[in-house]
Amino acid sequence: MLLEVRNLFRIRKLSPLGLLALVLLGAVLVSSSLPPAPAQQPSTGSSTPVPAGSPQSPPPGSPAATSVAQPQQTTLNIVVLDPAHGGTDPGARGQGGIRESDIVLDLAAQVRRALEAQGFQVVQTRQGNENPSFDDRSATANAQRGAVFVTLHIASTGLPGTVRVYVNSDLPAVTEANGLIPWERAQSPFLGLSKKFGDLVQGMLAQRFKGSPENAQTAAVRQLRTTAAPAIAVEISSVVVGDRAELDRMGPGVADAIARGVAAFKPSYVIPAGPGALP
């Protein structure tokens, strides 16, 4: 376009009025040669689904909103520790005032130190004698990206001096029409990873505590069902011991085993994005 305008200048000397007309003509020609601007699409008012691990976790007690999306690709950086029970719920109780809620809170502090020494960030569902709801605890875990969930318990029965790891039993996969996973089945896409994670931690515990199983066991653990991350329950046996000191002495070994298990699991924690991509 610019070459054609220059050729007009070479033809003859133009008057001021002719020059003005030529300039206007050139402007029209340039404008007509530009591609049309893309048309703006009207807004449909639809919103992007909130992914699992988003801080926009659904509020407890709201079934219409309690959904989590398929996981996104990420790596393991965070461990969410859940000292079970608390507040008005002491959990299992034994002789001499042994209360599960007190022991697991002290245990969580030891596990936290062991994990931080391995370079992990730790988030706790409670710091003191509170009693968050199941949904509150799951929402804390689901608000993290690149996390695993470990809930800590003391058994009311079992062989003293042993430790068992549980993963949630099978949950039939259900996906809603909008592509989201119902809140009550948030664990279902993670069962394979949870089993791998649980087996690694259980193997570490079996090396330290004679009589403990070699592999994680499955159970319908309420706290794990609504957690959208690899999730395990670690249960120490048991409150039937006569002296709490027997349980306290297990703390450092349990903490070290959990931290080493998380570190061993980290290379396996690369979660593909998209429905049905998890093992």
Question: What are the key terms here?
Answer:
disordered N terminus, Aminopeptidase, six-stranded mixed sheet, disordered C terminus, alpha/beta, 2 domains, 8 helices, 279 residues
Order of helices and strands: HHEEHEHEEEHEHEHH
CATH class of the largest domain: Alpha Beta
Distance between the termini: 60 Å
Radius of gyration: 30 Å
In summary, what is this structure?
This protein is α/β, with parallel strands linked by helices and 279 residues long. The chain has helices spanning 2-11, 16-33, 100-117, 134-142, 191-208, 222-225, 244-248, 251-265; strands at residues 67-68, 78-83, 121-124, 147-154, 163-168, 181-182, 217-219, 231-236. It is globular and about 55 Å long.
What does this protein look like?
The protein has helices at 2-11, 16-33, 100-117, 134-142, 191-208, 222-225, 244-248, 251-265; strands spanning 67-68, 78-83, 121-124, 147-154, 163-168, 181-182, 217-219, 231-236. The chain is α/β, with parallel strands linked by helices. The protein folds into 2 domains: 2-31; 67-268, Aminopeptidase (3-Layer(aba) Sandwich). The strands form 2 sheets. The protein has a 6-stranded mixed β-sheet, with helices on both faces. A two-stranded antiparallel ribbon has the order 1-6. Mean pLDDT is 79; it is low at 1-57, 59-66 and 274-279.
